[in-house]
Amino acid sequence: MGHDGVMAAFTKRGTPAAIAAEAAGLNDLARAAWAGGAPVVRLLSHSSPRGSRLDTALLSPASPSASAAEEFARRLAVTHAHCPEGSRVFGQAPAGLVHGGRTGDGVMGAAPLPLVAPDSRPRSFGEFYAEDRLLAYLSAARANGSIDEDGARVLHRLADRLREGAFDAPQPALVHTDAALLHGDLWSGNLYWATRESAARGAVGAAEREAEGRRTGEGGCVAVLIDPASQGGHAESDLAQLTVFGAPFTDRIYAAYDEASPLADGWRERRVSSTACTSSSSMRPSSEGLTAGRRSERHQPTRRQSQPASRSVRARAARVGLRRTEACKPAYKPRTGYISTSSAFSSAATSRRILATASRVCRTCAISVSANSRFLASNATPSS
Length: 384
Fold this sequence. Notes:
This protein has helices spanning about 15-35, 65-80, 125-135, 140-145, 150-165, 195-200, 205-215, 235-240, 250-260, 265-280, 310-320, 350-360, 365-380, and strands spanning about 10-15, 40, 45, 55, 100, 100-105, 105-110, 110-115, 180, 190-195, 205, 220-225, 230-235, 305-310, 330-335, 340. By secondary structure, the protein is an alpha+beta fold.
C-alpha cells in the first residue's frame, strides 16, 4: 500500500490487443484462484479496447522456497481443472475476449496468438498444436528468410505427426474437459515469488497464506502468476514451460502436482523430452532480430518482472551467450544475476539449429519447436 492507502501499481503499456488479452486472462485466472487455484496478481485497471495501459498490484520479491513451490503446484492443478461452464476446447480464448460468439486473437510477445470461441469444433491436442501453434507462424518465418524450404518440409512432417496423435496424452486426473485452463506463458520469469504480506494484498487467492504465516510465525513467500497468455490447452504445457531458464524446485513442483492431480503415464519421459528440446533450441541472441515490439515498455526489465537467477540459470545463460546489445537490455545481467523477459534469438544459423532439433523432435516434444517457430515469425530477421 502507498502512504495514502492506495495500492501501489505496476503499469504496463502495449497494444490494445495485448492489453485486452492479458486483462481477460488475468480475470479468468482470478476466478480460478477464488476457487482454490494458484494465486494470480491482482488486476487494478486497464484501458483497452481503445487504450493501451494495464495496472496490476505491485508485489515485493521474496526468496523461493520448496514449500511455496509445492503449494503452488497443488493449486496450479486446481487452476487447470477450473471450468464452471463444463467444457473447454484447445485454443479457447479467455471469456473477456469472446463477444457475440466471436473472439479476437491473443498476443504472445510481438506475435498474434490464434484463439477460438468456446463453441468451436473440438480438436485433439495434436490437431490444435499443428494448426494454431506451428503452421500458423510458418508463412511469416518463410517470408522473412528465417526458415528455408527444407526447414519448412521438416515442420510439415512434424505437423503431420502431431495430427496423427503422436504427441497426444490424457490430461491430468483433475481435468475433466478436453482442454485445461492454462496460464499459457508460464516460463520461470512469469512465476513471481512474492512475500506473503505483499501477496495477501496484491494477489487474488493468497490471503489465506498470509494468515497461515501469522499463525505459525513463519515468513516465507507465495508463488504468484503474472503476465499470462491464458487459453485452453494441455496442462503439461504449463509445467514444461517452467523449465525455460529453470524455475526453482521444478522437481518438487512436478511431484506435488502429480500427487494432487495424477499425470498420465509417461509424463516423466515427456518432461525429459520437453526439457531437452528447450535446451537444444536455446540459441545465441542477436540484436538484429529485435523488433520495436520487443523493445516496448512491456519487455523492459523491472524489479517486478525480474527474479534472482539460480546457479543453473546463470550457467545456461552463459552457455548460450546472452549479452548486452544496443537495442535491448540483456536477458542475463552478470552484475545483478537477474533474468528479464527481453532476450531475442534470431538469424538463419539459429533457424538451422532449431530445425535440426525439429528433425529429431518427431519422436520427442513439439512445445519448444512451436514456441521457436512463433518467435522466428515475429522477431527474427535473416542474418547477413
